[in-house]
Amino acid sequence: MGSDGQNWYFDLTYDQWTPLSVSGPRPAARYKHAAATVDGKLYIIGGSRNGRYLSDIQVFDLKSLTWSVIKLNSGVLPATSGHNMIKWENKLLFLAGHSKDVSDTVTVRFIDLQSYECGVIETFGKLPVARGGQSVTIFGSKLIMFGGEDRNRFLLNDVNVLDLETMTWSTVETTQTSPAPRFDHTAALHADRYLLILGGCSHSVFFNDLHVLDLETMEWSRPQLQGDLVSPRAGHAGVTLGDNWYIVGGGDNRSGVPETLVLNMSKLVVSVLATVKGRDPLASEGLSVSSALLDGEKFLVAFGGYNGKYNNEVYVMRPKPRDVLHPKILQSPAAEAAAASVRAAYALTKPEKLDLSEREDSNFKEVHVDNTQQKLSAEISAIGQQKKALESLLADVQAENANLKAKIEEVNNTHADLSKELQSVQGQLISERSTCAKLEAQITELQKMLESMQSIEEEVQALRKEKSELERDMERAASVQKQGSGGAWKWITG
């Protein structure tokens, strides 16, 4: 779509992704970058491409549909990937991520949007260990960071909070069952009270689970989602508009996720909003999605990602206005997590206590029986709903078991292949040992021969010495004989 009209975005079809025709040069394709929209402009910082971290700052103007590059007036922005960016006051704060920075703790940097100055913000308190692939969510004047992967590839599931007013870090102690350690998940804030964590991965497993942290009680729970199935994924992106959480892309290292989901956080119901085909840039890992306010209406803006190739396209969606619901009060104790989605529906409609004392008024007794029946009907209905929720949970567990069995079978096959390879190596080792034994025997024989040669050499030296002495004796004898023969001749002839 081009920029023929100044308000081109109002011509978009609801709930459909539309690629934008960009004027001029585009930034390098990338993934695992950080993105934020401010005043109708999409800011992209860093990312990764072909194993190399990037440090550029790109800006896309959603009015003119053009890219530009920000040159910092002061400060240096290190090449970073897997970091997060949050707008705070007149600054863009970006923190954590993988880079060549030697810091052992999370670093918080800023870019002033007016002066284009960049620097490091000094933080205090208990600084969290450096990491990448974490989630960072703004909650009032605080940032909540969950999980990630440190520089030694150690997976994390800790919760750390940065107070933006004092720039002080603190570690949150939570109760109940925490999510499994993970990275490349996505997070959202609901009703200014609940932190939602969806998906992500470990080094071998991709998750599709939803975890909720009650920020008042600091209790974790795992409510069950209703509606369409959420496939396991990591590297997906999410953004909230009201009660709705839009989730885009992601993958499992084999294929990208083609569906764009909308999760109603009040009902805990998931719906497929849009589906793309094949290796579409929207079915990528490490893409970003942001919300942009254009002339009073909010739009979704997606950029980048990797699905076999690196992408740098910009896509826009005009989400259809949806019903505004009252925030749902999520129950957090883990002992009741399996029925969380059902309990909430009845939390605000508890039946009044019934007076069981006997009265002579027959009319009252009749009303009492009716209320009891209504109560029983409501309880039966609630139990039925709980049964459905538990059946859904059982189905999820069975699906997870099937997935684990498949992984176990794959591991077993790998183990069998490795065993065969080990046997082959052992056979080669036995053969090499036999060869070594033969060589050692030959070396022993050669050593014996060498010792024998040394003995022969000594005998030869002795014989040479005797020969030399014998030759000297013979020379002396010949000399004496010559002298004796000359004297006799002289006497005879004299």
From TrEMBL:
Keywords: Kelch repeat, Repeat. SMART domains: Kelch (SM00612). The keyword Ion transport does not apply. The keyword Repeat applies. Gene3D superfamilies: 1.10.287.1490, Kelch-type beta propeller. Pfam families: ACBP4_C, Kelch_1, Kelch_KLHDC2_KLHL20_DRC7. This is Acyl-CoA-binding domain-containing protein 4. It comes from Nicotiana tabacum.
